[in-house]
Amino acid sequence: MVIDKGNGAPDGRAGASPAGGGLYSDQHLRVSDAEREAATGRLAEHFAAGRLDQAEFDDRVGRAMSARTRADLNGLFADLSETGSPGVPELPRGGGSTPGGGPRGPGSPIEFRLDAASGVPTYLQLVQQVEHALRLGYLKPGDQLPKVRDVVASLAINPNTVLKAYRELETKGLTAGRPGQGTFIQATLSQVTLPDLTGLHKSLLGWLTTAEAAGLDQDGIVALFTSALRDFHERRGGTGDRRGAASAETEGVA
Amino acid sequence: MNVIETSGLGKRYGSTWVLHECTLAIPAGHVAALVGPNGAGKTTLLNLAVGLVDPTAGAVTVLGGKPAGSPAALDGIAFVGQDMPLYKNLTAADMLHLTANLNRRFDQHFAEARLGELGIPLNRKAGRLSGGQQAQLALTVALARRPRLLVLDEPVAMLDPLARHDFMATVLAAAADDGMSVVLSSHVLAELERVADYLILLSRGRVQVAGEVEDLLASHRMLTGPAAEASQYAERPVVHVRRGAAQAHVLVRATVDDPVPPGWEAHPVGLEELTLAYLREPGAGALPGPARSRDTQPSEVTR
């Protein structure tokens, strides 16, 4: 049996994974969106397996999406082993694990995704994701939203859908278009501070315990919460008149 | 401008009319989906529009009144047929060379750059490429002609989900880049909602529904209520009724502002649900006012 002695890697590992430098051959070749997405998918697997933390993952996905050549893509996996079974020790985190991974490159700090099963219209999903990213601090005033063409190319959706979402964000005063450059964040959404969030989370857990004790299963809890949320929004979404009328009614009853 | 306009268009093979009295106008700047059951006449309509087939009756023009099949029309249209039309024994480079020489306009630089991005080797024979790569090669050849209208007949039917996604992404990015209009026929209803913003539903050789997706969705509501009252509900045109013993779902032409009868609930509908309802009711129709004849000014869509 002839074993290739050129590579010092242990036998099993070399067989299972072509990782290291040669994952994508022809280093100088330009990469396609499909390859970028495939790379993103593989990064997600590494993230799911615990080999990358959130910040590293976000950073590398950003670099994958802006990768131009195969060498760029390979760089993302240079320190990641593909053989990862749960028992394999994790790679050192932080520190030098993201070579050259400084601040974000040009382009947008966020990427859109679509959930076909959500029933939410596509344009609204894009709007909500921007709002969500604003709330969580992924987007700040001055940041650029992905270019319309890039969103179209990465999600395979109608260009008019993206335009509609961006118009809606502009109408809401969250973004502003700069001719020839793109769409930029110009306002921020009120962010809840972390201590507040923890407190709210705790009180929600308390409520969940009560709900379970009362005999509600998970679906029942979701249904109740959704219905309460809708009532809450409807009541709040009404005009001042309606609120006035409602309180007058209550007074009348009282 | 209308990218495809037909009036009284018909095509007969032997004694069978595969397309009959077809009158429609597809405005420019859209990704229009042509939907319908097998044998509804989709491929025939597309073949008539690109000039591969001559009409038996009526007329079809493209790109603002140019007769289908005329040199001026062919210059602005690219067509990719169902079977990914490639010469299987030619290499990708030869396909580009051939197309460049057969057309007045061909962007060789774009084509080579695109194939490079896709990782399709120029020296490989088309027949030895994967299905997804063949589709992308056919599409690249079509796009390199810089058409103002791209016509696709069942473009993704044979592709796996990833290849399908990448194919549509290429089409839509090209539409976003230079405002190219797209007309495509498809069976994949679930994907249409993301891709198309104009819908034409063909049934038994006739146009059943035509319009902007946004308008169609805004003008239809699904009403849910007691089955006993379903047949009495006649305030708005009813498209389709699904009835259980106690409960019925009635698809009606109504907007958010139309009153909902007491005891009934109104929900918005999705494109797939709407399309299926019309496919089940070949008698129902939703057509825009204009597009009757060519001298009436078509309602230009401002957006």
Task: Jot down its keywords.
heterodimer, A: 254 residues, mainly alpha, two-stranded antiparallel ribbon, 10 helices, disordered N terminus, disordered C terminus, B: 303 residues, alpha/beta, six-stranded mixed sheet, four-stranded antiparallel sheet, 29% strand
Q: Could you characterize the architecture of this molecule?
A:
The complex is a heterodimer of chains A (254) and B (303). Chain A has helices at 11-16, 33-48, 54-65, 70-77, 122-136, 148-155, 159-171, 194-213, 218-237, 240-253, and strands at residues 175-178, 182-185. Chain A is mainly α. In chain A, strands 1-2 form a two-stranded antiparallel sheet. Chain A is globular. The relative contact order of chain A is 0.07. Mean pLDDT of chain A is 71; it is low at 1-23, 82-105 and 239-254. By secondary structure, chain B is α/β, with parallel strands linked by helices. In chain B, 30% of the residues lie in helices and 29% in strands. In chain B, the strands form three sheets. Chain B has a six-stranded mixed β-sheet with strand order 6-7-8-3-9-10, with helices on both faces. A four-stranded antiparallel β-sheet of chain B has the order 2-1-4-5, covered by helices on one side. A four-stranded antiparallel β-sheet of chain B has the order 12-13-11-14. The longest helix of chain B has 18 residues, at 161-178. The chains are: A mainly alpha (254), B alpha/beta (303). Chain A binds chain B through residues 29-35, 114, 116, 119, 122, 148-149, 152-162, and chain B through 30-31, 116-119, 162, 165-166, 168-170, 172-173, 175-177, 190, 193-197, 270, 303.
